[in-house]
Amino acid sequence: MSTWQQTQTPYGTGSAPPPPGFYPQGVPYPKADGGYPIGGGYPTGGGYPTGGGYSAGGGYPPPYGQQNAPFYGGSNVPPQNDSFNAQDNFGFNDKTIRKNFIAKVYSILMCQLLTTLIFVAIAIFHLPTKKYIATHPGLSIVAIIITFGTLIALACCDDLRRKTPTNFILLCIFTVAESFLVAVSVTRYYPDQVLMALGLTTLICFGLTIFALQTKVDFTVMGGFLMIAALILLVGSIVAIFFPGKLMTLIIASAGAIIFSLYLIYDTQMMMGGDHKYSISPEEYIFAALNLYVDIINIFMYILAIIGASSDD
Fold this sequence. Notes:
This protein is mainly alpha-helical.
């Protein structure tokens, strides 16, 4: 055992200095000059030792960088921002976040569709309600105003659709108003026609969703094309008002069903993210559910129009 370890005398009282980079635990630093031991303790030249951490044998913890490796100060530092893509910034690199996001979107969507189904069932099977709707057209005008108002608010205002519970309140108001409008529309058709359209819509939407999940074709790049197609459909619908007829109705309804079927694939892939070029942020679960709901409702209404126009009545 060395003289220093035997005596345990603090440095500065005449004993030999401690070995470089080591100062015994429990032995105070000298108060005569207020500095570190000459020749020992911290290395000369200033700063911390190269490579991080204090000298071996000391009682001091390693620096923050080494304590938090591999995230800081280690060799496994995450890549810089230029190696991230848009999906990583949205959190789609984490499968758990994506699964939770998709589950939340479809949960909201199922509640919306269930609400609409209840309104439709009451409108076609409950005769007093059907007569009341037919004799009060002003309710439809109010529902149209509410539908477009809430739709614009949710689609154009990021703060409204991301702030809870405002986003859920607006979405509920929109869903009820839209469900009422759908209920008013189906009263013009026979119950068997409505049920047939409902069944076809379910099969089509289920098939399109499976296709969107399995196909390698990236439909997220078709946003501009779909927007142009929707505008053309709007113009055609306005023209059909002045030139009514079964043929015109079949053409507009068929085109609308195709366009919104493509929109359903587009919105599904936008929600799924993954290898697609564009994806929606996990914070936009209200917006994603709103898009899917509008797509499904439009597919249902256009298919119902095709069935109605194809009948002999």
